Amino acid sequence: xxxxxxxxxxxxxxxxxxxxxxxxxxxxxxxxxxxxxxxxxxxxxxxxxxxxxxxxxxxxxxxxxxxxxxxxxxxxxxxxxxxxxxxxxxxxxxxxxxxxxxxxxxxxxxxxxxxxxxxxxxxxxxxxxxxxxxxxxxxxxxxxxxxxxxxxxxxxxxxxxxxxxxxxxxxxxxxxxxxxxxxxxxxxxxxxxxxxxxxxxxxxxxxxxxxxxxxxxxxxxxxxxxxxxxxxxxxxxxxxxxxxxxxxxxxxxxxxxxxxxxxxxxxxxxxxxxxxxxxxxxxxxxxxxxxxxxxxxxxxxxxxxxxxxxxxxxxxxxxxxxxxxxxxxxxxxxxxxxxxxxxxxxxxxxxxxxxxxxxxxxxxxxxxxxxxxxxxxxxxxxxxxxxxxxxxxxxxxxxxxxxxxxxxxxxxxxxxxxxxxxxxxxxxxx
Amino acid sequence: xxxxxxxxxxxxxxxxxxxxxxxxxxxxxxxxxxxxxxxxxxxxxxxxxxxxxxxxxxxxxxxxxxxxxxxxxxxxxxxxxxxxxxxxxxxxxxxxxxxxxxxxxxxxxxxxxxxxxxxxxxxxxxxxxxxxxxxxxxxxxxxxxxxxxxxxxxxxxxxxxxxxxxxxxxxxxxxxxxx
Lengths: 430, 179
Description:
CATH superfamily of chain B: Tubulin/FtsZ, GTPase domain
Radius of gyration of chain A: 23 Å
Strand content of chain B: 15-25%
Number of domains of chain B: 1
Strand order of the largest sheet of chain B: 4-3-2-1-5-6-7
Largest interface: A-B, 46 and 41 residues
Strand content of chain A: 15-25%
Shape of chain B: elongated
Largest sheet of chain A: 8 strands, antiparallel
Number of strands of chain A: 19
Radius of gyration of chain B: 23 Å
Helix content of chain B: 25-40%
CATH architecture of chain B: 3-Layer(aba) Sandwich
Structural class of chain B: alpha/beta
CATH topology of chain B: Rossmann fold
Number of helices of chain A: 13
Oligomer: heterodimer
Shape of chain A: globular
Number of strands of chain B: 7
CATH class of chain B: Alpha Beta
Number of helices of chain B: 7
Distance between the termini of chain B: 40 Å
């Protein structure tokens, strides 16, 4: 349970809000690189943290992210012409460079032109390609952190695949699904049997035979490690360890030699978020079959309405609910696919769930601790200017792990190395 | 919102009727019609300190307003049971009495925690089908013992373990659980 004022504090991320200020301390996934595939390609509308922006790639290949609307009459620059190193408004021809600086006002006399242009600059943010993602930093330029070092974005391009989908609810309830390990044995039980990106792993049998796991939540420098243990062979536990790094990065424990995957949960506004979903293998390229499976919406990816980033299964078609499949046991909830099984239930809570009404239990301790750490970080930033966890790139050097350990061993001790990025070394997986 | 004027056709697999559809049901306006339960049954939790250091945290919490939670300190094992002391308020009770109507037991451990206490309480909770959780607080430097030792002692006896870096988080964790 959360008091309403704390729920508001954590769920509102627009300009000037405490949680919005916290998000603006980080490099944030803004869009996929594939959305701006070539120089002078069409611009893309982007809404992030309740700010309407336009992204474009200019003639020299520079990326820009700036206020969507022309300073002149407030026309959307989505209608603009991306040409000759700038984005030109279609209404009267005002032109802006990737920094939002106005560089041309064709209607003005030549003698006044440069002085007037110099006074007009749209709000803009840096936009940087790392891996498959274009990242932005929307905070104070004077405190721009080091560029992101997440392993999925830093491995060779052929080792990694990233997709994104629109989720129609607040970012926090979506994130909380990513750190709620207790639902996996129920909602996603079908995926462990059938999905090409999960099946065949030794660890799956532990998941399917022990449906009453025990939980261990340990704080880390960047957030949390959430360990879930199930019975394994005599004298051993099977541990699945999920890192959460503030504010919204999660990584799902791996299965066998399958790629590792996880999510970034990024607020669009207070009632919508982007879910960036990555899959990567630290030491080998993804196979053609794996990439095809990801493109087909397997694993933690999903299918899309053609030409969009909206899931094919969405609230307008009741997520293609299949009651017959539910009754047969093909799926637990009747919804196909792991990501849409999660999204359908999270969206069913409403745009911003009323956490004053919830009844948490001990197995929700990961969620409770994540909220608490977010709350503390928001207050420390607001009151004392303390940089929050997760900004420091050393906090980003984490991996998930799936291991079998003797019963008397602490996962935090035994897996200290496995939970760190070790370039060139395989992930710990069963 | 008014109902559609015409009768809905029988819904196929992907043809939801408007009033029952997810598109309408997930709006903020519809969320406001959720039923409230102001008198929802209180949880009956037992928060038990396992030693002197954790007693300070538990005693401090006992002064706050809580739902149905009891705040206790483990005193000693007795044959087939354990003796508990009410934190702050004084008086004693048997563990078996306290667990009679409990639905959750939260063990709080820090430096000086009695390892036997976790075993006695965990076994008693398991025998009664009561959810058991453990909160491990920071161990002050020089106080002897370590967080890892506490975790090892609690692991077999708690279904959920949370290792905290700041004891000040304990009230918030318990509040979230509606102790």
